[in-house]
Amino acid sequence: MAKLKITLTRSLIGRPETQRKTIKALGLKKLNSSVELPDNESVRGQLHKVEHLITVEEQA
């Protein structure tokens, strides 16, 4: 199964609480922090909600 490397690239200051909680649920804490998560539908849905705050790279 493929993995996704997700990096928080924009600040959460002034963002709605739902977006803050989504970032926390993804495991991201500080600016420029990264996590590797499996590529599945639930993760893709979370990424779509905060796509303007993150960068996503596909890992083999």
TrEMBL record:
Alphabetical keyword list: Ribonucleoprotein, Ribosomal protein
Alphabetized SUPFAM superfamilies for the sequence: Ribosomal protein L30p/L7e
CDD domains (alphabetical): Ribosomal_L30 (cd01658)
GO BP terms: translation
A Gene Ontology cellular-component term: cytosolic large ribosomal subunit
Location of the Large ribosomal subunit protein uL30-like ferredoxin-like fold domain: 4-54
Molecular function in Gene Ontology: structural constituent of ribosome
Gene3D superfamilies xrefs: Ribosomal protein L30, ferredoxin-like fold domain (3.30.1390.20)
InterPro entries according to UniProt: Ribo_uL30_ferredoxin-like_sf, Ribosomal_uL30_bac-type, Ribosomal_uL30_ferredoxin-like
Record-linked HAMAP family: Ribosomal_uL30_B
Subunit note: Part of the 50S ribosomal subunit.
Family affiliation: Belongs to the universal ribosomal protein uL30 family.
Protein name listed in UniProt: Large ribosomal subunit protein uL30
Species of the source: Anaerovibrio slackiae
Phylogenetic placement of the source organism: Bacteria, Bacillati, Bacillota, Negativicutes, Selenomonadales
